[in-house]
Amino acid sequence: MAAQMTDAHRRFLQVLMSHGIMEGSEARKLHKCCCEIHKVYYAHDKLDDFISTINSHLQPLFMQIRKGMSEDDGRAHYALVNLAETEITKMASDYTENELELFRKTMDLIILSENGFASSTDILNLADQLKTKKMKKKEAEQVLKVFVEDKWLSERNGEYTLHTRCIIEMEQYILSNYQDAARKCNICHSLAIQSQVCDSCGIGMHLPCVRKYFRAQAEPRCPQCNDFWSSDIPGTKQ
């Protein structure tokens, strides 16, 4: 039998819904705040149990709070995911057909790239090749800005990658639609877009997972095949 939803659970869900995604430390603060306001039992290490209770009540609504990781710094994030629709179609109510096509093409570039990024130049060059309706570059720039604001894409120095929210929401879609290119991290087993790959056996690891895994090793060796890890370890001086 599912644990009872309290007003603390409802408040937590409401705030998360308004944010769409929340960093782990913010979610922990919110958990404490909701429990204190509604005078229900609070334990600092029980956030995942608290969320499990919410998820058991969201199940009939085909929704779920999922935990994921930022590929930049390895921090945990929580996002509310709609399971009833395929991930791209759930964007359809917010964007026009040619905007969705631009997003799909951007996703292709990012996932099929070696480093998990696509340059703004490459993306904007696609704007006048759209099958639905061609887009002027100025218009495409504006659309990309909206994708960043809506947390589907992240942008850094003119390079775009998938936002943490997008990876959490679209993991299953990406794994089934990009079977030859998409891979799971060998360490945390979640989808890895920005990753390093073993030259010998081809396994991939998130950059924060690479940093953590090799931290204590004098000579970095692949966790799968034990061959020397030839990529530079992020955060270490070579």
From TrEMBL:
GO terms for molecular function: ubiquitin protein ligase activity; zinc ion binding. GO terms for cellular component: chromosome, telomeric region; nucleus; Smc5-Smc6 complex. It catalyses: S-ubiquitinyl-[E2 ubiquitin-conjugating enzyme]-L-cysteine + [acceptor protein]-L-lysine = [E2 ubiquitin-conjugating enzyme]-L-cysteine + N(6)-ubiquitinyl-[acceptor protein]-L-lysine. It is an enzyme of class 2 (transferase). PROSITE patterns: ZF_RING_2. It comes from the Eukaryota. It is found in: Chromosome, Telomere; Nucleus. GO terms for biological process: double-strand break repair via homologous recombination. Residues 185-226 form the RING-type domain. InterPro entries: Nse1, Nse1_RING_C4HC3-type, WH-like_DNA-bd_sf, Znf_RING, Znf_RING/FYVE/PHD. SUPFAM superfamilies: RING/U-box. Its EC number is 2.3.2.27. Keywords: Chromosome, DNA damage, DNA recombination, DNA repair, Metal-binding, Nucleus, Telomere, Transferase, Ubl conjugation pathway, Zinc, Zinc-finger. Its main location: nucleus. Component of the Smc5-Smc6 complex. PANTHER family: NON-SMC ELEMENT 1-RELATED, NON-STRUCTURAL MAINTENANCE OF CHROMOSOMES ELEMENT 1 HOMOLOG. Belongs to the NSE1 family. RING-type zinc finger-containing E3 ubiquitin ligase that assembles with melanoma antigen protein (MAGE) to catalyze the direct transfer of ubiquitin from E2 ubiquitin-conjugating enzyme to a specific substrate. Involved in maintenance of genome integrity, DNA damage response and DNA repair. This is Non-structural maintenance of chromosomes element 1 homolog. The lineage of its organism: Eukaryota, Metazoa, Chordata, Craniata, Vertebrata.
